[in-house]
Amino acid sequence: MIYLFLKRVVKWSFLILFRRKVISGENNIPSSGPLIIAVNHPNTLIDPLLVASQIKRKVGFLANASIFINKLIKYIFNYFWVIPVYRKKDVKPGEKQDNSKSFQKCYEFFDREGALLIFPEGTSVHELKLRDIKKGTAWIALSYEAERNFEGNLEINTVAINYSDPIKFRSMASVVINPSFKVSDYKALWEQDQELAVQKLTDRIRYEMEDQITITKNKEQEQTVLLAQKFYAEYIDPSLSRYSDPLRSFDLRKKLAEKVIAVQDEDPVLFKENAKALQLYFFDLNRLKLSPGILRARFLNRNKAWILFLYVLELSFLIPFYFIGLATNYLPYKIPDWLFRLLNPEIEYRASIMMLAGMILFPVFYVVDVILFREFISNELIWTLFFIVSLPFLGFLTLFYWKIINRFFRILHFYFRIGASEKKRLLEQQTKLILLFQKLMVK
């Protein structure tokens, strides 16, 4: 009962956290029987919550023992079938790393036909790559089946998560669930060579994940791919924007990564020249306080006076709603950010802290808002209900208004502060990059 309630709360929270999220392959999850769900891990706590909230089955979790910090936490984790696994850095100096008890708990969970969510990478770092896959997942799966003479019916689903920007509010996410396969398929290999069977199963988990995510070899490639994706979606094919179609957008990023890697492998000098040109273009935009969309042909060809008139009209009409939304949503929106800055954890924890803090703060502040509304404005039920329903919409409208007013000031800056020669130079840079991308994508 508690699990289902929290699952719904988390699911609703993701409707706010993400602008769009796409789940593919939900029907690939077996409806019953013991199951391992092996997932890549780019975004700390968001990853398990995202996967667990989107599938129908109740899941347990394999987690680092370091988070089991006291008896209360242990009790809560035990209730939700969070099983600790000990890494070398989780044991004290001189103590032996021993996961035999954890493995037995996994087996007990499988015997109950449980679905166990595991992150084979072990740690969470946002990179455009898959870190080394640990063999623990394969050992758990194969040793469980071996104890039951390979008649335990344990299956594995691999899952790939992609984020447009894992630490940014209102970004996009996709979850791809691959078809399940039976661990018993490795019976003959296990009986022949256990180490080889573990390695082959580990390789399969890695290959299935890598097939669905963007892979780069180093930070230089990663930065180039992200800028290339941004440029391509702005000036070559806007339908591939990160905010329109997540699957097509992530597919573009994957293809661009393959092209970038090929260029660097074939001609490192050419790669550096092209990467530098791309970085310089976006550096100049930031230096001049311009957004990329201002230099789209569609915008440049529109009438200046008409554009400014429409912005002024829109901002004037929405300003009352903006101030109401600001008064009712500002503190629960900003406090999680202040909390993150105060705690100063690794950047990968930003989305987790923001989401969990928001799940608590928004309901609390909304209750206060409703009390104040009934006290000073109206205590009639119909108006109270209308106010309650409007609160989240006012929050979104406030964010929208803030983006619009920032865009408006950037446009004013572009029209009246940026000289003709600077505009011409930026457009020449853009044209050269467009030609470069056209050549790159036909290779």
Low-confidence stretches: none
Which percent band covers the strand fraction? Answer: 5-15%
Give me the Rg, rounded.
26 Å
The count of β-strands is 8
Describe the overall structure.
The structure is a single chain. The longest helix has 40 residues. Helices cover 61% and strands 10% of the residues. By secondary structure, it is of the alpha/beta class.
Features:
443 residues; alpha/beta; 15 helices; 8 strands; 61% helix
Please describe the topology of this protein.
Elements: H1 2-17, E1 18-24, E2 35-39, H2 46-54, E3 59-64, H3 71-79, E4 82-85, H4 100-111, E5 115-118, H5 136-147, E6 155-163, E7 171-177, E8 181-182, H6 187-192, H7 194-210, H8 219-236, H9 246-266, H10 268-287, H11 297-300, H12 304-343, H13 350-376, H14 381-416, H15 420-442
Parallel strand pairs: 1-7, 2-5, 2-6, 3-4, 3-5
Antiparallel strand pairs: 6-7, 6-8
Helix pairs in contact: 1-2, 5-7, 8-9, 8-10, 9-10, 10-15, 12-13, 12-14, 13-14
